[in-house]
Specification:
The structure is a single chain. By secondary structure, the chain is α/β, with parallel strands linked by helices. It is built from 14 helices and eight strands. A four-stranded parallel β-sheet has the order 2-1-3-4, sandwiched between helices. It has a four-stranded parallel β-sheet with strand order 6-5-7-8, sandwiched between helices. α6 crosses α11 and α12 packs across α13. The radius of gyration is 20 Å and the shape is globular. It starts with a helix and ends with a helix.
């Protein structure tokens, strides 16, 4: 099992190397900018949907001409990678207009990155209404038509439906991994768990599916484990900073479940059955829950986290907000209030891909562990 984890680690920590490897094999790639996208359409077209989620240790320079200092660093870094040539080789990027800043990213990309075309897709906030579903369906058709121009041939509904089934199979295996990792907290630590999730963003689904199936098979053979520390649930948009994950390790806090956009949010919701693939993808967006960029007037996120914590035997919740993300900051007070009302401890801190010194966060984590 550890060899598969190591493979995931290598890809998660060196995604551009993995992209280069695919390109050398003749695989064409489309950049899928965080935080949600129509990956199935891209892969059905024969392209690799390559996750573009920023990164660490990247100095901002060229992107400063386009974004102010109070822009979330993940967005600035994505544009920086486009401007400095790090993402050269991509056939195009798909940028979801889920926030005002991301809409600006799309326009700035169109203006500044001339060699990689920009394909837009707008995810409606009134996503459960019929008009919202119909709107997103038309947006998915638009993406397909733009990909057909790049491919030079048609993408059939049958091809997309077949890919949807592959993705649903992968989602099921990822959900199983989440459950099995929670039952084996000594065998799968926080960093290894993150490597498995993160590597999936940079691989063809059939390739990652083979790996995750092998990991799950090995975990299923092992007896359930007791953990001497404290079990926690995490939530936010991103929680892949190795400094923070190491700090959780040092304080004996084991992640046993999450509502993180980069992790389980990608896999919690299957694409429903149907014949029209674009309608199916639109209905999936209508069914997504526990995600700040998916409008939820009932504010169910705190309840969902509390239910997951009870199911997995967790004592606390880590809410990691992305600095300058209004959506996360608006969600946070009510979410934290709900989990505390359900008897859970909670800690909140801001993450920033440009922050190389997480001492304040480490102090908060240490205090949180002592309270538990």
């Amino acid at each position: 099992m550890k060899s598969y984890i190591e493979e995931c680690k290598s890809i998660a920590l060196n995604p551009l190397s993995k992209l280069k490897s695919y390109l050398e094999q003749g695989v064409k790639a489309i950049g899928m900018v965080a935080f949600f996208g129509p990956n199935e359409i891209v892969e059905a077209a024969g392209f690799l949907p390559f996750g573009v989620w920023g990164g660490y240790g990247i100095e901002l320079d060229l992107s400063k001409q386009y974004f102010p200092a109070f822009c979330p660093s993940v967005i600035s870094i994505i544009l920086e990678q486009g401007l400095n040539g790090s993402l050269n080789g991509l056939e195009a990027v798909i940028i979801p207009g889920q926030t005002d800043t991301m809409q600006c990213l799309g326009q700035n990309w169109k203006s500044g990155v001339k060699n990689i075309p920009f394909i837009s897709i707008v995810y409606p906030q009134n996503r459960k209404l019929e008009c919202g579903i119909e709107f997103l369906e038309s947006e998915c058709v638009h993406v397909k038509e733009e990909l057909e121009k790049i491919k030079g041939s048609k993408i059939t509904d049958e091809e997309i439906n077949k890919t949807i089934e592959l993705y649903n199979e992968h989602r099921a295996e990822m959900r199983k991994f989440s459950e099995l990792a929670a039952k084996h907290p000594n065998s799968i630590n926080n960093l290894e768990r993150n490597y498995v999730y993160k590597s999936a963003l940079y691989m063809k689904k059939e390739d990652h599916l083979k790996i995750i199936k092998k990991i799950n098979e090995e975990l299923e053979k092992m007896p359930e484990e007791k953990y001497s520390g404290h079990k926690i649930i995490t939530t936010g948009l991103l929680l892949d900073d190795e400094n923070i994950l190491n700090s959780l390790e040092e304080n004996n806090l084991r992640i046993v479940g999450d509502y993180v956009a980069q992790e389980s949010i990608q896999y919690n919701t299957d694409v429903p059955d149907g014949k029209n693939p674009f309608r199916r993808l639109a209905e999936q967006w209508a069914n997504v829950e526990g995600f700040s960029l998916a409008y939820d007037p009932d504010l169910k996120r705190g309840k969902l986290i509390s239910e997951l914590a009870k199911e997995r035997g967790a004592e606390g919740v880590v809410y990691a907000t992305v600095k300058f993300s209004d959506y996360e900051e608006y969600d946070m007070p009510i979410c934290v209030k709900t989990v505390r009302e359900n008897g859970l401890q909670a800690v909140v801190f801001e993450t920033d891909q440009q922050d190389n010194n997480s001492e304040q966060i480490k102090t908060r984590i240490q205090t949180f562990a002592e309270i538990l």
